[in-house]
Amino acid sequence: MTEYRIGQGSDLHVLVEKRDFILGGVKIPHTVGFKAHSDGDVLIHAIIDALFGALCLEDIGAHFPDNDPKYKNADSRNLLREAVSIIRKKGWEINNLDTTIHAEAPKLRPHIDEIRKSLADILNIDVEKVSVKAKTSEGVDAVGERLAVRTDCIVLLYK
Q1: Which of 45, 50, 73, 108 could be stapled to 153 by a disulfide with Cβ–Cβ 3.0 to 4.6 Å?
Q2: For residue 37, how many other CB atoms are within 10 A of its CB?
Q3: What tens digit of pLDDT does each residue of 92-136 get?
Q4: Is 98 exposed, middle or buried (0-12, 13-18, 19+ CB in 10 A)?
Q5: Could you tell me where the beta strands, DSSP code E, fall in 17-92?
Q6: Is the entire prediction scored with pTM above 0.85?
Q7: Kindly report the CA angle at 107 between 94 and 102, in degrees rounded to 5?
């Protein structure tokens, strides 16, 4: 009998100058990037939290603490690969994931297919199982004021 688990993750990073704007492992041209200990890939961070959450394995900070020099400027793609390895060692596979990026700028529509492909490659799943949507906040809150980017992810695992 197949067993299923659902995980939910979210993350938010402040935007600052002189940092890269990376989503799902894709560097997107922009005037600002993410303030973070690692590379700040806010989308991958939400996915990691969803994966760990589905199996009650705490959160990204428990596995990759932001006070550990080992993770200074870390490539979040590598953190995601490690998270996937952890869940697979426990016998779980990713059925699909659904993500939402909340950002006022830059326009993300031209980058969605590349982000989906990047995530599918990292997760070693079919791109048809990776949903990436982009929304604005209509000028409301820190996202709407272009001070931050927030992401959400829901993942379905099976065993």
Answers
A1: 50
A2: 16
A3: 999 999 999 999 999 999 999 999 999 999 999 999 999 999 999
A4: middle
A5: 22-23, 26-27, 33-34
A6: yes
A7: 50
How far apart CA 46 and CA 27 sit, in angstroms, is 17
Number of C-beta neighbours around residue 62 at 10 A: 9
DSSP-based three-state secondary structure for 42: helix
d(CA 105, CA 103): 6
Pull the structure tokens for residue 122.
């990292």
Element of type H or E holding 135: strand 130-135
CB 46 within 8 A of CB 90: no
Apex CA 70: angle with CA 119 and CA 115, to 5°? Answer: 15
E strand or H helix that includes residue 12: strand 4-16
Hunting for tokens 């059925």 — which residue is that?
95
Beta bridge partners of 34: 15
Assess contact for 54 and 5: CB atoms under 8 A. Answer: yes
Q: Single out the residue of 100, 97, 118 nearest to residue 28, CA to CA.
A: 118
Upper half-sphere CA count for residue 89 (Cβ side, 13 Å): 7
